[in-house]
Known about the structure:
single chain; alpha/beta; 5-stranded mixed beta sheet; 5 strands
Amino acid sequence: MRTALGFRAHSGWAALVAVAGSIDAIHILDRRRIEIADREMPGSKQPYHAAAELPFPEAEALVQTAIESSRALAQEAISAAVKALKSRGHEVGACGVVLGSGKPLPDLKRILASHALIHTAEGEMFRDVLVWAAKQSRLPVVGVWEKNLEASSLQRIDSLGKLIGPPWTQDQKYATVAALMALSAQ
């Protein structure tokens, strides 16, 4: 059965849902929270916030180190999910990632000068990390703008939580719709 991963990112973590089938016959194969920020690395969960307090060369280095660390964690989590699904007979063929506003960000100096842009940059960073890691795993990636998630699809999957149990929050629902959209794009 065709299978896809779906993600909805937060600062330092993401909801992962593995889905097979279609909107009319959904099979939730896995749900988990993956960590994409190194808890041992100061500032990794909110690197732009941490960088704003530093001189620019140090800020730039901190952000780059956080990105590289998060990429490694995301790639490890995706590889583990794909391996676990494969061991159960499922071949993962795509990945859907819920995206933010899509507004282009300015350079790092301007980001660090604006608290609102710091929040935006952190959200973009963790979504970008997931996209990068999926591509490294040779999974085609479909980006799904959060504001464009189909209300009808969300309503259709809302009741799944009663069948499969928790967790079935907005994160898992959005990640499921993103995965279904990735499956339909194949």
